[in-house]
Amino acid sequence: MRRAGLWFVNVFVVATCGLIYELLAGTVASYLLGDSVTQFSLVIGLYLSALGVGAWTAQYVGSDLGRRFIAVELSVALLGGFSAPLLLLAFPFARHFQALLLTLVFLVGVLVGLELPLLLRLLRDELEFDELISKALTFDYLGALVASLLFPLFLVPRLGLVRTSLLFGFLNASVGLWATFLLAPVLEGRLFRLRVWAGVVLALLTAGLFSAKEITRLAEEFEFGGEILSALTTPYQRIVVSRCPNGFLLFLNNHLQFDSRDEYRYHEALVHPAMQAHGAPERVLVLGGGDGLALRELLKYPSVREATLVDIDPEMTGLSSSLGPLAELNAHSFSDPRVHVVHEDAMAWVGRASGPFDVAIVDFPDPSNYAVSKLFTRQFYRSLKQRLAPAAAVAVQCTSPLFARRSYWCILRTLEAAGFVVRPYQATVPSFSVWGFALARLRPFERPTSVPPGLRFLDEATLASLFVLGPDLESVPVEINRLDNQMLVHYYEEEWGRLR
After folding, report:
1. b or e along 28-38 (b: 16 or more beta carbons within 10 Å of the residue's beta carbon)?
2. Number of domains observed in the structure of the chain
3. Which domain covers residue 253, as residue numbers?
């Protein structure tokens, strides 16, 4: 009975490790391939079906169950433990990366699916059938619960993807080594080779753990094509700053946010039309924009007395102040006494913020998932409208109207549905091609015609050209984006997915 209790601890560890490998694969897929909803759905569905294949295959394992269980356990440890490092390192070179990803997920799922049936057969002489099944499934489901809580709340923010993968491979291999002692009476003296094999797997995983930082650095240098100036994983995102010729790049969750060589075109186009539309704003609001570059443009206006920036991630705003090249690029905007920074979810904050604001700059990442898309919904824009002065102007980054035309017009129509009068405009940013924006106010208005002196990109003629959209950018029929339909995510995934 005591031996059965120890085996149920193994069930718990196996279940935890198996789900962790699945979550790692889904996260790597969404980081590298985008389209997070589809990628996670594919990974979860394939993993669950592979568990079934593994359980079905277990019926053909007819003898020497203890040895075979240990072999499966060590194989899971090796394949699952090195899954995240392998995928991250392979991505820049694999022509069919998704096939590699799904093959790896399937193999790990089959091996994990084999384990529980083999374990039940090993224990069938120790417990009554009802007790055996109920306890095994209880520990199995508890392991899944622990994994689902640990993964987003502790493992990825604190350890990162590579260390998490290798750590749980180490736990799997430890279970395999432990099993050589628990099963010693039925292994008929064939222990030395099994323990050597377990020791080798543990040694490889230990070496990987000590090299995790270097593995991550190599993977990111391969992917981002330059020296990594800063890389950190936060509870909200992976932030990477890499060097490029004559500048540097910022990536969030593997998506390029700006290139320092041409970001001024984006940020001048984002900020100055709204500022000029108002004329003399005193209280300004930036939602997102934790890099401080929109702030840099806002603070050029002497009329601004107070600038509030709301960004959920304190690591992002901290990096923007502490990393020399980035702080220099944003003109040390976070040190300006007019700036007040709030680290909170923008939707929650806007719902209870005190106003009114004269200008709001909405600079969220693209709506590639539901968590971000909620910040482009009619409900969000209605809340924002309540925090604005009657003469306020709002600028919103709206993805590319060239590559994601329905996504672009979905955002504009959603703004209109929330009660704004909207003018579309666009700017060419070499790193992103044609990029789209919306200028919105609470009442009809004429487009701005002037800009402050000394800008690198905008002058009066260029400003006028921003509001000219060619036939290939003109409006198309779309649904508005609401919390209960999140149509924007579907448009975005379909349109950008065609380019991957």
Report:
1. bbbbbbbbbee
2. 3
3. 222-258
